[in-house]
Amino acid sequence: MDNLDDEYNFYWETKRFFENEELDNWALDEALSSYYDSSSPEGATTSNAAKNIVMERNRRKKLNERLYALRSVVPNITKMDKASIIKDAIDYIQELQDQERRIEVEISELETGRRDRPLVNEVVDDVMTVPVSRPSKKKRVIKSFDGGNDMRSPSIDVLELRVSEVGEKTSVITITCNKKADTMVKLCEAFESLHLKVVAANITSFSGRLLKTLFVEIDENESAQLKERIELAIAELDAPHSPMSF
Q: Which among 48, 80, 187, 237 has the fewest CB atoms less than 10 Å away?
C-alpha cells in the first residue's frame, strides 16, 4: 500500500513539475512574440527571434528530460523544483562515495584473507587393500581441493541488470543479484575488468540480495554496448580458464 502511495505522489508531483515548465515556455513565447512584431520596424529580426525561441524551448526540454531522468534514480527527493533535485542528487552522490570507501575497505580485507588461505592438499596414505590370494598392496591417494564442488553454481546469480543514461556522458548501472559468500568480491572484479570511469558506487544488502548501483562516465558510442559488456564480464567469471574464476 505504501508503494502505491509513493507512486501516486511521484506521478502528480512530476506532472505538476512539467505543467509549470510548460507555462514557463508559454510565457516565454508570448513575451518574445510580442517584442518582435512583424509589423514593427524591427520586423527583419523576427526570423532570428523565432530561432531563438525554438532553441530556448529545445534547451528547456532537454534540461527537463535530464532532470526527470535524474529524479528517477535518486531515491530521496525533497521537492520537485530544479534546485532541490540537483541538491538532493549531489547529497546522494556524496553518500554513495562514503559507502564506496567503506566497501573498498571491506573488499580489501576480504581479498587479503582470501590470498592468505592456502590451497589445501590432503594426502591420504597407507590405504591397504587385501585381495584374496594376492599379496597386500599399498596405495597412495592424493586429493586436492579448495573447498568447492565440481559442479559449481554461477558466481553471480543476476536477477536484474539495468543501464540508464542520465546525461551526455553519464550512465547509471543497477544490478540485483542473490547474495552469496563471495558475490560482493566477484561483482567488483567484474566491473574492474571493464576499466570504467566510476563516479560513485553503492552496494546495498536486503532480503538475501545485493543491489549494486554505479554512476559511470562513458562515451555515447560505447553506451549502447555497455549492458552487453557487463553481461560478458560476469559470464567470464565462471569461464574454466578465466583468471577471475580462481
A: 48
